[in-house]
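If you are new to this repository, start here. Below is one unmodified record pulled from the training split, so you can see the exact layout before writing a loader.
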Amino acid sequence: MNNFNSVLNELIQEKIYENLPGKKTRRGSRINVRCWICGDSRLKQSKRRGWFYTNNDPISYHCFNKGCTASGINLLAKLVSTSSKEASKLVFKKIKQYNDNDTSYEDLTPSGVVSPIQEEEEVVHEELEIPNYWVDLNEDAKQILTNRKILEAPFKPRNWKLYYSTRHKRIAIPWVSQGKIDTYQYRAMYKNQEPKYTFKYESAKSIFETGKFDDMLDYYFYLEGTFDAIFIQNGLAIGGIFPNAEQQTELSNRYSLMDGVWIPDNPWVDESAKEEIFKRAKTNPKDLIFYWDKDWSSKDINEHIIKSKNINLFDYDFLESRITTVFKFATALKFGRAIQ
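And here is the target side for that same chain:
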């Protein structure tokens, strides 16, 4: 069992945790770090664009900041700041130790070192079955979705389908997380149906990921509802104004290279949205937020899409151009002036 690559891979993973400073995050078979070769982003010390691919044999590394790459013995050499020749000696020395001890490779954990793969807790998504009382959309549901441009939204998840719930007399909205349905939501269709939105009974809050999501971009944009999120490039719906603790942990694990940007409803129109921004400015003033233009009269993203008659308005470049801090936006709101 003590073949060269097996021991080499063990040493690489050991040295990742022993020698590299800063946070390391495990995502499946990949380990994310701040690149120690190029120094990573100089503007943002929190950026981590280096990735180890542990399912490769031998393990390989790629940095998406400057394109630094390494694998196998060359990667180990970079981790311990030595030559490839000296790195090879480390592997042979380790193999000799195993053979001298007559101990199987799988049972060994280096003395004084915690097991090198320390995965952060991951949320396991079990796909839900579609209830038998969900049927194809009726004409009333189709009319509502057509009027709100939902059926032509550019960032719907792939193969996402909406239904009509005969039990609830509402539109059934599956919540897709990492390609699986792990909860669902109902939207009212008729007058006097309150509340407007309800979630599956006793279901944990999920993260609805829109289609064409690109985790190599710098930002993701989170907001409350799915019918707004599907018009946002790199949008996420969270079912509330802010992520709860479990959602925040999942966001940090899933999108560790990215910064989150909050998209509230339009605070120039909605007083409750304005109050939430004022509250957030006191607790998290440096959080990033999408700022609404003072002259826009739409209450939310979907309404703005309908009024603008442009379903592609909220592409990534447009969204990125309107990012500011919560403190700056709250100050603008307080004094009734546009962001400068």
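Two things worth knowing about this chain: The first helix runs from residue 4 to 19. Confidence is low (pLDDT under 50) at residues 102-126.
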